[in-house]
Design brief:
Elements lengths: L3 E6 L20 E4 L6 E2 L5 E2 L1 E5 L2 E4 L10 H4 L4 H10 L4 E5 L11 H21 L4 E5 L9 H10 L2 E7 L1 E2 L2 E2 L6 H10 L3 E4 L5 H6 L4 H18 L2 H4 L5 E4 L6 H14 L8 H4 L2 E5 L5 H8 L4 E3 L14 H7 L5 H16 L4
Parallel strand pairs: 1-7, 7-8, 8-9, 9-12, 12-13, 13-14, 14-15
Antiparallel strand pairs: 2-5, 3-4, 5-6, 10-11
Helix pairs in contact: 4-5, 7-9
């Protein structure tokens, strides 16, 4: 059985946006260098000076890049180096998530469409060179819902195995009917909806500008709660859902809260909501898995390394450590490392 890293990352570079159509070339993000002002530290402790300039917004380029990983590997300039490092880490397949799109970038649909399409074509290039070991989640241009289905279908044909979502999108909650065409397309294309730590809301992002936990983690947990309260997974029973890079430690608390609210409204709360609604949650090696498993069950947890990043969720040795963890039975570990992510992402295992 293959070992599947359910959450790895790419660090975007200039090459990422070389696929933008000539007519939209002026919309391409620029890389700018800081030449003055206070020195900014990266998450790895180095000096951070490069930024993206997108639609008038200055955004750190590699603030969260993990300096312990080879630069050419995390930036996908050397696919062979990435694969070699995966071999060292005992990883057979990585599912690649973006870095730049974990935060709001623009309110202009034309810019979003241009950037999303170019990013997706860059990932397709990486997939072709990755010998089947580098799969990816497609970034949908959600400000132009009419273009989303075609972009998802293109991604599916070129190695995508999921759909990328933030905890908030387009200044809306994921339960908003605006997104229902997206969920219908996900079912038709057999692609999971992967809600990753991050948010696409300038309002919330700027309010919590110095609070990474509230800004990136809580919107995903809130999205889980809101989607179940609003009955969205029940409305789309053919959909698969992933909640990625927010640990799994919150599951008992959220289940308790939801159960109380369901009961007050005369609604049945499932014995196992993850199983009932085809939901998978990415745990972390440091989670109290013996406590979580009675709530989540054995078949709906996955794990990722957060490869390429340096933040609170990063554990580059996650796959190896999970295998060595004596707290969890070996057959459960096998499921978390292989069978469960294979089902989430629709990968043969």
């Amino acid at each position: 059985m293959r070992t599947i890293d359910a959450d790895a990352h790419v660090i975007e570079i200039a090459r990422t946006f070389e696929f933008i159509d000539a007519a939209d070339a002026a919309l391409a993000p620029l890389i700018v260098t800081q030449t003055g002002g206070p020195v900014q530290a990266s998450n790895s402790g180095g000096v951070h000076k490069e930024h993206w300039l997108i639609d008038g917004h200055v955004i750190p380029k590699d603030k969260i890049a993990d300096s312990s990983t080879p630069e050419a590997a995390r930036e996908m300039r050397d696919i062979a180096a990435r694969l070699r490092h995966m071999d060292e880490l005992e990883i057979d397949v990585q599912v690649l998530y973006p870095t730049m799109f974990l935060r709001p970038l623009t309110r202009r649909s034309r810019i979003e469409v241009a950037m999303a399409k170019s990013y997706n074509r860059w990932l397709a290039e990486i997939w072709r060179e990755g010998k089947g070991r580098l799969r990816w989640v497609v970034v949908p241009p959600l400000l132009e819902m009419g273009k989303v289905r075609d972009e998802l279908a293109w991604g599916k044909e070129h190695g995508a195995c999921g759909i990328f979502l933030n905890g908030l999108e387009c200044e809306l909650r994921l339960s908003d009917p605006y997104f229902f065409p997206l969920y219908e397309a996900a079912i038709a294309l057999d692609l999971p909806l992967c809600v990753h730590a991050g948010l696409n809301s300038f309002t919330v992002h700027d309010f919590f500008i110095d609070d990474a936990f509230a800004k990136f983690k809580l919107p995903v947990i809130g999205a889980f709660h809101n989607l179940l309260m609003e009955g969205v997974p029940a409305r789309f029973p053919g959909a698969r859902w992933g909640f990625i890079e927010v640990s799994a430690q919150w599951i008992p608390y959220v289940f308790k809260d939801l159960k109380g609210r369901f009961l007050k409204r005369g609604r049945r709360f499932p014995d196992n909501p993850l199983r009932e609604y085809n939901i998978y949650v990415a745990c972390e090696v440091s989670d109290d898995l013996p406590m979580i498993l009675p709530y989540a069950g054995e078949d709906h947890l996955v794990v990722g390394t957060d490869y390429g990043h340096s933040d609170s969720s990063t554990e580059i040795e996650a796959m190896r450590l999970m295998k060595q963890d004596g707290r969890v039975p070996a057959h459960v570990v096998d499921k978390i490392l292989g069978a469960n992510p294979a089902r989430l992402y629709g990968l043969a295992n």
